[in-house]
Amino acid sequence: MIFKTLGLGALQVEVARRALLRVARGPVLGLAGLAAVAALAAGARGQRRVARVGLETANVTCSPIPLPSFTAYWPVALPIRSLPIRSLTFDTTIALVAASATDSESRRVEGKLARTALLGNGLYATGHHEDALSMREAELAMCRRRGGPEESILIAQSNLAISYAKLGRIESALRLRQDVYSGFSKLKGEKHSRSLQAANNYAASLLALKRFEEVESLMRETIPVARRVFGESHEIMLWMRWTYARALYRDDGATLSDLREAVTTLEDTKRITRRVFGSAHPLTTRIKKALRAALRRLHARETPPAPSESG
Fold it and tell me: In angstroms, rounded to a whole number, what is the distance separating the alpha carbons of residues 228 and 242?
């Protein structure tokens, strides 16, 4: 059997076996099986966040049928980080996904699209960024070709923009993220979490291109909306404030007031993020780094230059 030839342990075999059994029961559960396999690969690399959203990844494809909760099929007593999964490599994951691809003819297109999305995310998570880009381009093309829901197309565009940005194609990422932000704002409204997240992603691309004034303008428009909708402690709100502060202090034309605002914003955001997510959270770490940089810029501006020596 394929599992024995892949060097999988007993627990890995059991979870993978259950995933494949669910595939055999129908196309929708087949997507759940594929998501479980993707989560196994994430668990193998200690990527808990990727593993947790295994089913969400499948659920945001063009398939209109909601998928069941992933937690119902994972050994609840064993957190993902404690699973003894070490020999499950990316190639193993591809083999398992291929073995799982048994969608019925009536759902063939949806199954192909779901597999493309899952493989694209798996390739990205494992550092195969050029291949991930190809898969995500294919995913978007399929979504458009079959007239998928607008939200699914926007999500595919957002994923593709991530790959563009990772490969340094910032202008391409910017164009997509502008479209995604505009699309979600029209589809969901400016107060929806999708729209606000898209605004921050768009601002991140503007920031990468050093278009600081546009970042500041966009964030000044959307941060108050996020504050009213989510409150100060929501993760989207915290990411947006981090983005805004970086635009303030990185701008060579920043005033002393701008630099002080950046420091104040980062100090407040660090305090909230550490309280909500802890000191080891990636966002907390990034905010600390940004705060150190902002303080250096502020101190350099506040410190008067040493008097020049006269001959």
Answer: 18
